[in-house]
Amino acid sequence: TSSDNAKFEPRVSLSEVNGLSDTDVVNRLFILYLDHFKEKSIFNGEKIVAYKDVKARKVPHVNGYGDLYSVSYSVQETFWGSYWEAGNGHIAEDSWILGKSFVVELTKENGEAKLRIIGTGL
């Protein structure tokens, strides 16, 4: 369902990302996250058409969380007023929202690297 899609957490086998830095793993997982929402909507058909400028950077440790990263990105949405406009970034022409960001947590366990969205960015 759409609400289940909002909780989507991309995963990849640790063997697939062997040799990559954790920042590169976060970039790869976040691209999987965005690719997911090109195919499936979060709520009421709110898919994205395209994305660009995905860049992760490590942020200082926060109690209660593991390894945190701020990921900046831009998305092109399917219609005005969607979920993708909330939080941050600025609306540009051709339905692009530029300079969005999320804080994400990277975990590695059971042979997988997993990304969890914490909230809008720093």
The count of domains is: 1
Strand content: 35-45%
Q: How many angstroms does the end-to-end distance come to?
A: 29 Å
Q: What value does the average pLDDT take?
A: 87
String of helices and strands: HEHEEEEE
Please tell me what the overall shape is: globular
Please report the total strand number as a whole number.
6
Number of helices: 2
Could you give a short description of this structure?
By secondary structure, the chain is of the alpha+beta class.
Describe the protein's architecture and organization.
The chain is of the alpha+beta class and 122 residues long. It has one domain. 19% of the residues lie in helices and 41% in strands. The chain is built from 2 helices and 6 strands, in the order αβαβββββ. Strands 1, 2, 3, 4, 5 and 6 form a 6-stranded antiparallel sheet that branches. A hairpin with a 4-residue loop joins β4 and β5. The protein starts with a helix and ends with a strand. The model has no long low-confidence stretch (mean pLDDT 87).
List the helices and strands and how they pair.
Elements: H1 2-6, E1 11-13, H2 22-39, E2 48-58, E3 67-77, E4 90-91, E5 96-109, E6 112-120
Antiparallel strand pairs: 1-6, 2-3, 3-5, 4-5, 5-6
